[in-house]
């Protein structure tokens, strides 16, 4: 689903007008309308969009990481369970790799620095997935609260 389709889906799922959705970011309604029609979202608006909805956060992360989620997950549905398992697996891999670096007798400092920088980037990727997971949970809580009032 494209960015613009995600915006329309978010707005309609939450029974919002373009004006109400735009106020949540906050941006002008006319800008929201342009986004829905395919105008690219400026980078400085992406954090607010990410906070609004986990699906939008996923689109932001896809754009910022050049497709990391799709490359990493393939066709896996980013449900809470799938995200939780992926985070756990990635953290285990990071801990193992860090342990290997720490225990290594290799005194080639440039190699050690390269390895640590690679691990830092991998950790950043895990943090991005964790933010999506946080958004998924927040949306589920919001939906449960709405369901409890009906």
Radius of gyration: 19 Å
The geometry reads as: elongated
Structural class designation: mainly alpha
Question: Number of DSSP strands?
Answer: 0
Residue-averaged pLDDT = 81
Q: Residue share in helices?
A: over 70%
Biggest pleated sheet: none
- The residue ranges in which pLDDT falls below 50 over 5 or more consecutive positions are none
Q: Which range does the strand content fall in?
A: under 5%
Run of helices and strands:
HHHHHHHH
Q: Count of helices? A: 8
Distance between the termini: 30 Å
Describe this structure in words.
By secondary structure, the chain is mostly helical. The longest helix has 41 residues, at 109-149. The model has no long low-confidence stretch (mean pLDDT 81). α2 (18-24) packs across α3. It has helices spanning 3-13, 18-24, 29-36, 46-52, 54-64, 68-73, 80-103, 109-149. Helices cover 77% and strands 0% of the residues.
